[in-house]
Automatic annotation (TrEMBL):
Residues 45-92, 99-176, 206-315, 375-508 form the Plastocyanin-like domain. Pfam families: Cu-oxidase (PF00394), Cu-oxidase_2 (PF07731), Cu-oxidase_3 (PF07732). The lineage of its organism: Bacteria, Bacillati, Bacillota, Bacilli, Bacillales. Belongs to the multicopper oxidase family. This is Multicopper oxidase family protein. Gene3D superfamilies: Cupredoxins - blue copper proteins (2.60.40.420). One of its GO terms (molecular function) is copper ion binding. It comes from Peribacillus glennii.
Length: 510
């Protein structure tokens, strides 16, 4: 199905208003419901799930260091929009089909409010998972000013819940950011990029079976999901009318599996100012930005002197990444900017030469080094599934960092996919990536490097919470664990991998 591009305007999610707010606290209530929404004017309205009646959900804006309470309320129907595979961990027949738990991705948060995958709840909190602790979550917002996002994290059905529409932006702001004089107000726009596939009637398609169906199972998990159409903020190939001036865009890849390598058709540079975890030290001019699922980047695009021009944001990342199919005319296009609005006032915003210090964590300060593998396996149905450190979700916890300690993790990729690995609670820094001999490692468990250490890409040199670990490479990350203790998770953010065993708990201990 080919839908006409650039016929619908880019929607900008509304900013959510709190129920109440005083000097100390802010309180929100957020309802999850099923509703119909137009995702393209040539399609029938599509049934989706969303927060507060919108997909993507409304943007939640908070102040750094201010305490926010949110009651996430599940008002979804009992039947799922998509087929559920009951052979997947956490999704067996002994749990309700529809259950949710919200994770604010990148949040510095107590574990009881982190959205632990087994802390799920149903409509009216009638049934809850074994790690459910509270109805009202508390967010201390102790991280940097940054672009975070919230999405569902229920064990075994995360891929289905997020695909149904359960995702939104969560922005942490700070006085320091206002002093930078970046483009702001209507010149600052969040951009959530996803891929989906539609049925003829406009409904969302999600496969019941992999390419080689499993005859014993009515519904089977698939190794990856790659959609045929690109949506931005819940619209297929939208356009945005802009003035000939600078704009700040907060880019988020919220797809299940698809990677995006973003470029501008005009060939012009984008000025990156932030990574997942907040501002970088100096803006960098980049011609392309790679975003794996869950990664964010903030960029300033300057449309000055481009009156009357149309600029297309393109994507050329193969899917699955890095050895999958190349993009086609649909998946190679993201959206269009039309420089057609008159300049409403002189553009006095700036691209600062220096933003803020991002001190490097010293490798010598690490008290522990962990070697953790990314593994490929087969289940009893002959389906491929991925593991972290060759352990399944239910295996005893082996990662138990001490509060305030610094660790270096060697993420050793023994698979043929690039995996975006995400750690909850903390931000880390990427030290390097290095090619190594996979066969030798599999045989002798010895790391034999086959090339020099490759420093992180310029656009990754800041605070990160998600790192791309490429095939035949070891990625090294360094981080300090805190400020909370308790139970968190780390996982691959390809949601089909996360749902089928590529996720592990870790516990921060006193």
């Amino acid at each position: 199905m080919i839908l006409t591009k650039f016929v619908d305007e880019l929607p900008i999610p509304p900013v959510l208003k709190p129920q109440w707010k005083d000097q100390l606290y802010t309180y929100y209530e957020v309802n999850m419901t099923e509703f119909k929404q137009s995702l393209h004017s040539e399609l029938n309205d599509t049934t989706v799930w969303g927060y507060e009646g919108s997909y993507p959900g409304p943007t939640i804006e908070v102040e750094k260091g201010k305490i926010v309470f949110i009651k996430w309320i599940n008002n979804l129907p009992d039947k799922h929009l998509f087929p559920v595979d009951h052979t997947v961990h956490g999704a067996h027949m002994d749990v309700p089909e529809v259950r949710t738990v919200v994770h604010v991705h990148g949040a510095c948060v107590e574990w009881e409010s982190d959205g632990y995958p087994e802390a799920w709840f149903t409509k009216g909190f009638k049934q809850v998972g074994r790690y459910f602790r509270k109805q009202i979550y508390r967010y201390d917002n102790c991280g940097h000013d940054s672009t975070l996002w919230y999405h569902d994290h229920a064990l075994g059905i995360t891929r289905l819940n997020v695909y149904a529409g359960l995702a939104g932006f969560y922005l942490i702001r700070h006085q320091q950011e206002r002093l930078l004089n970046l483009p702001s107000g209507k010149y600052e726009i969040p951009i959530m990029i996803q891929d989906k596939t539609f049925n003829k009637d406009g409904s969302l398609y999600y496969p019941k079976q992999p390419d080689k169906p499993i005859p014993e199972l009515e519904t089977s998990i698939i190794p990856e999901f790659v959609g045929k159409t690109i949506l931005v903020n819940g619209k297929v190939h939208p356009y945005l009318e802009v003035e000939p001036r600078k704009y700040r865009f907060r880019l988020l890849n919220a797809s299940n599996t698809r990677f995006f390598r973003i470029k501008l058709g005009s060939g012009q540079r984008m000025y990156q100012i932030a990574t997942d975890g907040g501002f970088i030290q100096h803006p960098i001019g980049v011609k392309e930005i790679m975003l794996a699922p869950a990664e964010r980047a903030e960029v300033i695009i300057d449309f000055t002197n481009l009156e009357g021009k149309n600029i297309i944001m393109t994507n050329d990342a193969p899917a699955p990444f890095p050895t999958g199919d190349p993009v086609d005319e649909n998946t190679g296009t993201v959206m269009q900017f039309r420089v057609t609005l008159p300049l409403s006032s002189v553009d006095t915003s700036a691209i600062p030469a220096y933003i803020m210090p991002v001190p490097k964590i010293n490798e010598q300060s690490a008290s522990k080094i962990r070697y953790l593998t990314l593994n490929d396996n087969m289940d009893k149905y002959g389906r491929e599934f991925m593991l972290l450190d060759n352990k399944q979700w239910d295996a005893p916890i082996t990662e138990n960092p001490k509060l305030e300690s610094t660790e270096i993790w060697y993420l050793i990729n023994l698979t043929t996919d690039t995996h975006p690995i995400h750690l909850h609670l903390i931000d880390f820094q990427i030290l390097d990536r290095r090619n190594f001999d996979v066969e030798k490692f599999n045989k002798d468990k010895l790391i034999h490097y086959t090339g020099p250490a490759i420093p992180p890409e310029p656009y990754e040199r800041g605070w990160k919470d998600t790192v791309r670990v490429n095939p035949n490479q070891i990625a090294r990350i360094i981080m300090k664990f805190g400020p909370f203790t308790g139970l968190y998770v780390w996982h691959c953010h390809i949601l089909e991998h996360e749902d089928y065993e590529m996720m592990r708990p870790f516990i921060v201990i006193r």
